[in-house]
Amino acid sequence: MSQRPDEPQPGAAPGVLAALIFYGGMLGVAWLLGVVWLDLNLLVWPEKVQGTTAMHAVLGAGVGLGAVVASRLVERYTTWGRKLGAGFGAMLGAMSPGQIQVLALTSGVAEEIFFRGFLQQAFSTAGWSGAYGEWVGLGLASIVFGLIHIGPERETFRPWTYMALGLGALFGLMYLYTGSVLGPVIAHITINYFNLEHISRQAQTSAENSSPEDER
């Protein structure tokens, strides 16, 4: 039986349950180590908080949309960008709207609370805390964030690691400037949502173009 063209094709994208378990576990680790052990506030850095909630949200949305536009330009005008996009399409396949929404939301919330709210704040207030402590924390959290974004084929996905390192630093600067994870969370969700939607659409188009015509 053939699928209708508007239906997502089977792919290797993580399911909703797997995403909830993985990112729920990440939040659990951040809570145990950050809140219970280090007595940190994972949503705000009290000593750094400035600006309004609305300003944090607008900043996050602006940064996120700017990163999405930049990724489209890279894919359009560079060979490695197109190769990276094709690699993601092959790895994730076409996704349903529900998968995209859950993956974007859970990854954006959990990763920013873990890497910014917990890790960056913990590194910044560790033994090297002082005049440069917050920059040490920013650098270390960004490096770890970049290192977890390594794809199965290093040659294809190496640019993804570098981009994650840069975005991690940008998210960290937003967190350092506002003292809140709200801006980084919104930026991260925005980037993941639009990029996953783009990857899914390309994967579905590719599958339709490469599949044989239905028998009459």
TrEMBL record:
Transmembrane intervals: 12-34, 54-74, 86-110, 130-148
Protein name: CPBP family intramembrane metalloprotease
InterPro entries attached to this UniProt entry: Rce1/LyrA-like_dom
Lineage: Bacteria, Deltaproteobacteria, Bradymonadales, Lujinxingiaceae, Lujinxingia
Metal-binding listed as a keyword: no
Domain CAAX prenyl protease 2/Lysostaphin resistance protein A-like stretches: 100-194
Keywords: Hydrolase, Membrane, Metalloprotease, Protease, Transmembrane, Transmembrane helix
Pfam families recorded: Rce1-like
GO MF annotation, one: metallopeptidase activity
